[in-house]
Amino acid sequence: MTASPVFAPFRAVASAVRLAFRNLLQDRLRFALSVVGVGLSLMLILFLIGLRAGALRSAVVYLDNAPGSVGVFPPGTKSTSAGSAQFLAPETASAVASTPGVARVTPILLTLGLADLHGKKEVIKLIGYDAALGGGPWSLKQGREPVADDEVVLDRVLAGRHGLRVGDTFEIGGRRPTIVGLSSETSSWTGSYVFALRTFVEAVVLAPGGASFLLVTPEPGTRISELSARLQTLEGANVVLKGEVMANDREAVAGIFDRVLLLMVGAAFIVGALVVGMVIYTATNERRAEYGILKAIGAPGGVLYRVVASQAVVAASIGAVLGVGFAYGMGWLVMAARPQFMVIIEPTSIAVALAAGFVMALAGALFPARAVARLEPAEVFRR
Amino acid sequence: MDNLGLQVERVTKRFGSGDTEVVAVRDVSLVVNPGEVVLIMGPSGSGKTTLLLMLGALLKPTEGSITLDGLELSAMSERKLPDVRLRHFGFIFQDFNLLSALNVLDNVAFPAELTGVSRRTAREKATAVLTELGLGHRLRFPPDKLSGGEKQRVAIARALINDPTLILADEPTANLDSSHGHETMRLLREITQKRSRSVVIVSHDARIKDIADRVLWLEDGQFMKAIEMATDPICGMAVEREGAVAGVREGETYYFCAKGCRDEFLAS
Lengths: 383, 268
Ligand SMILES: Nc1ncnc2c1ncn2[C@@H]1O[C@H](COP(=O)(O)OP(=O)(O)OP(=O)(O)O)[C@@H](O)[C@H]1O
Ligand SMILES: [Mg+2]
Prior knowledge:
Strand content of chain B: 25-35%
Helix content of chain A: 40-55%
Number of strands of chain A: 10
Order of helices and strands of chain A: HHEHEEEEHEEEHEHEHHHH
Radius of gyration of chain B: 20 Å
CATH superfamily of the largest domain in chain B: P-loop containing nucleotide triphosphate hydrolases
Strand content of chain A: 15-25%
Bound molecules: adenosine-5'-triphosphate, magnesium ion
Distance between the termini of chain A: 41 Å
Largest interface: A-B, 36 and 36 residues
Radius of gyration of chain A: 30 Å
CATH topology of the largest domain in chain B: Rossmann fold
Structural class of chain A: alpha+beta
Helix content of chain B: 25-40%
Number of domains of chain A: 2
Number of helices of chain B: 7
Number of helices of chain A: 10
Largest sheet of chain B: 7 strands, mixed
Oligomer: heterodimer
């Protein structure tokens, strides 16, 4: 009646975990240190992943808000981030516009530029658009859109950082436009957006009538695949769906990011595992005699393994939750202090962090737990 | 069954080999009957701990066999031993060796939980044993808040919780003052006799001789002579048969602490 064979293994596990808890809580300071250590390392991991997500997001934020679903690019180009020196000829634009099924063509002239903002140089993404065809700022916070050459809308965060306001001027490409509006959602540490009329940008890049790409809005009821096929036959046009362009843009940013990111995430992970490992190792070593006793009184190696591993898992789990909290806090702080950095903490990366905490715990506990499981119970009698 | 209790047959333990070989226990045989308390004494290095470890299945003999209640320990696989230790043996150590993170009750309940009984049952059993040992008022105490004697009684309770066949104790009184040591061992004897469980104690402490049914002297890995104990029927004192005052009544030999007791006994 008492020793139900079905529950017996679970009960042994439960008592192992309980002992682990008590062992951990006995030295509160060490427990707190291990939790904070894991928390900080997971925070770093989450923060880096969040920074990457933010960078990917800002890489496509413009296209995401621009009209159209099909892009037409110069041959050999299929992303905006290429910063290509090739332009589509004005004839291509008109040919696209007269293709059946096309409702609207939005020509965009995009170039990376170096703006001189009160003596400080900043890389910006200069967007040239036609007010009538769309592709301008989608979230204007102050002022108005440009109506004349030498008028621009500047990203609000960029303007704020340099103390620029509506009515101020700055230098770019040898010209001195006036700021007529400030836009939001357009900031990025890889280059914030500046919007101007296409004619202004044409003058800057010396490509009269050119466009970096065209965004095509199909007529309602048109099949995208058929439209793409028709456009593809046009001379000098490379047709790419807007979704694909965005994916390519994301990939280009990820390509720059991921190697460094992987290195840093890996380092943070190892640091976290080392913290868990060191804490569990010292805590375990201190109790060698106790673990020997447990073995002598008949605890199988597996139970000891579990006691040690659960200590690591408990410390790492609490550390992981703390780390998620830290990461949100850090993300918020960074975005408040440096709004050009976007940190996006997604549910999936939280899941990744929690899993990382778990693996960290197991990795950190591996050696101490193995040492304990191999402990000779006879050792307890000799000292 | 006639093979109840512990049977040790011609057990030898060697450590190392060649020039560095140590024969810690040499061709030792011993039988411990259910309910019997055996004290093994001997000089340092004589092999007492080694023998005890073999009795408790914590160390494999080089030669010979050890059988507990018909179960041959020396032939058992390593995988089965933890369970045997858990259910058939109770260990008491010199340093008490309680788990510092658990309170008194949980320390004692832990081995019961390992057998798979529910936590409640384990705690009930632990409470009962602790109360029997006079620790009913210390259940929630952490071990470091107990006196040495109390700690050793907790250790005894832990050794008894799974109602083992054999209790093994290595220098259980070494860290206690003499009165506490003696009192604790007397309590152990009382409880194990009530349950008809055997006890083997290894000790330097001659003052606990009187709680043993039998005292063995180990020297250089071998038993020298058996010191047989008897209880003076008049004053109740434990006496070594050899050298004690003896008297025969109705064909049976009795042993006394002094002539006075014998005379009183034979006169009655
Ligand atoms: N693991 C081992 N390896 C080698 N020699 C050992 C080992 N264990 C014990 N010995 C040797 O066996 C002999 C008996 O040791 P044991 O510990 O059994 O003696 P003891 O009677 O318990 O001594 P004490 O009273 O000091 O505790 C000693 O000479 C010891 O050095
Ligand atoms: Mg010894």
